[in-house]
Amino acid sequence: MTDLLWFRQDLRLDDNPALAAAIRRGGPVIPIFILDPKGDGDWPSGGAARWWLHHSLAALADALTARGSRLVLRRGAASEVLEDLIEQTGAAAILWNRRHEPASAERDAALQRDLKQRGIAAESFSGALLFEPKEIRTGAGTPFKVFTPFWRACMERGGIAEPHAAPKDMPVPRRWPHSDDLAGWKLLPTNPDWAGGLRQAWTPGEAGARKRLSAFLRQGLAGYETRRDRPDVDGSSALSPHLHWGEIGPRRIWQAVEHAAAEAPKLRSAAAYQRELGWREFAAHLLVARPELPAEPLDRRFADYPWETDRKALKAWQQGRTGYPIVDAGMRQLWQTGWMHNRVRMIAASFLIKDLRLHWRTGESWFWDTLVDADLANNAFNWQWVAGCGADAAPYFRIFNPVLQGEKFDPDGAYVRRFVSELSQLPQKWIHKPWQAPAAVLDEAGVTLGRTYPRPIVDHGDARRLALAAFEALPKSSPAPRGSSAPAAG
Ligand code: FAD
């Protein structure tokens, strides 16, 4: 009997539990991908994500072809497309790896019920995370809302399974159902083609993911703990888009890091890196417990925050023209490459929320549209974290000073020079505060403030005072969260 293997955010053959199960069942397997515009509810993929998806699907199709198989592409509501494919192929089972976004999870649960009622096996597997979000619970049986005890509970639970190797070949059906043409989906930008920087920066697909992991293990892991906060050096793994699209599974990364640690017992960075994977687990855990995470502050006091709505300020932030070099470098890195260093994400987000007092959701949606790793759980969780309204969040009153942050984490200004080329000739002393540089220095560096590079759009000291005053005016204690799924203290 033929089975359908439904690829979603698990665009890989290595350590793919649904694929391994399909092969174990012994019959022909038809790999499919459905472009379902309603899959993520209110969160259709942004432009950068669509670019990535195109290339990742092309890579997956090539990998399947190399094993004698194919990738069948269909567009439409998943339930209707599956119905059609079952009818055409007589499939007896559909297998997939679970996703945790609320709209996808709800759709999948309804599909599973419906298929089972009709006698079609519908089996889902755990491939996206190290720990299924609902399996990790406090002593009281509730979800966690604080990271450290959450991660401790994960580590005590242990038992991270060994990853499965990719199959060497695939059992194929005698007849293939029709497939759409990938180019016809028009996922790539044309007119204008703004993806030049993305093409230079990334190789979407499983092979690109493995290559990046190997390079990180060779060159990045040993210094990760000290270098991960430095945007001017390649100190982090840059695996986030590959992880988001499931081109590499977290178990494969975990195992590779464990092996590296076994070979070098003094490697402290291994645990530090694994802990970052833990934040990804925690964000998914929270999204499952609190499906409103992308849209509403978990700390309900912030529902009354008097957000500004200055469109000009928002545009300056989006375009990297705030007059604060570290913020502008980050926003331009995002626009050019579809990615931004984590430290700079925090600085740029803090600037939007606290210096400009624009709603964190405006930043969340800009990131959603421009990041190649845009991820519902990670994006929402981190925006709420910076805004101070999330779970285990940074306190609101901790406001990043963009000059000091720049001087600390980009000490020579190399990161700013790379992305804000109009400041490239400015001496290090002024690179993070050009408005304080003497006129002669600016002249010599070819900088005319207000013309070649903006003056700061707000004064950080004033903005900070206003932000703190707005925070002070909020109710002192948080009203009870809505719904019954509120996590207990972790
Ligand atoms: P590494 O330091 O190499 O870490 C390894 C992996 O751990 C990452 O690939 C990622 O999967 C995970 N990880 C690391 N830090 C975090 C974190 N803070 N939260 C959750 N997972 C983490 N990450 C996304 O994947 N998608 C997003 O949409 C996203 N939006 C963000 C928005 C804001 C405002 C902020 C402050 C952070 C956001 N992050 C997001 C988290 C983090 O910035 C990125 O995961 C990280 O920069 C990716 O780079 P890396 O792969 O080199 O990370």
Q: Notable features of this structure?
A:
490 residues, 5 strands, DNA Cyclobutane Dipyrimidine Photolyase, subunit A, domain 3, 20 helices, single chain, Serine Threonine Protein Phosphatase 5, Tetratricopeptide repeat, five-stranded parallel sheet, binds flavin-adenine dinucleotide, Rossmann fold, mainly alpha
Could you characterize the architecture of this molecule?
This protein has 20 helices and five strands. It is mainly alpha-helical and 490 residues long. The chain has three domains: 125 residues, HUPs (Rossmann fold, 3-Layer(aba) Sandwich), CATH 3.40.50; 120 residues, Serine Threonine Protein Phosphatase 5, Tetratricopeptide repeat, CATH 1.25.40; 173 residues, Orthogonal Bundle (DNA Cyclobutane Dipyrimidine Photolyase, subunit A, domain 3). The protein has a five-stranded parallel beta sheet with strand order 3-2-1-4-5, sandwiched between helices. α4 links the parallel β4 and β5. It is globular, with a radius of gyration of 24 Å. Flavin-adenine dinucleotide binds next to α9, α11, α14 and α16.
Indicate the topology.
Elements: E1 3-7, H1 17-25, E2 29-35, H2 47-66, E3 72-75, H3 78-89, E4 93-97, H4 102-117, E5 121-125, H5 147-157, H6 196-201, H7 206-220, H8 224-227, H9 240-244, H10 250-263, H11 269-289, H12 311-319, H13 325-337, H14 342-355, H15 360-370, H16 376-387, H17 402-409, H18 414-419, H19 439-444, H20 460-472
Parallel strand pairs: 1-2, 1-4, 2-3, 4-5
Helix pairs in contact: 10-11, 11-16, 13-14, 14-16, 15-16
Bound molecules: flavin-adenine dinucleotide.
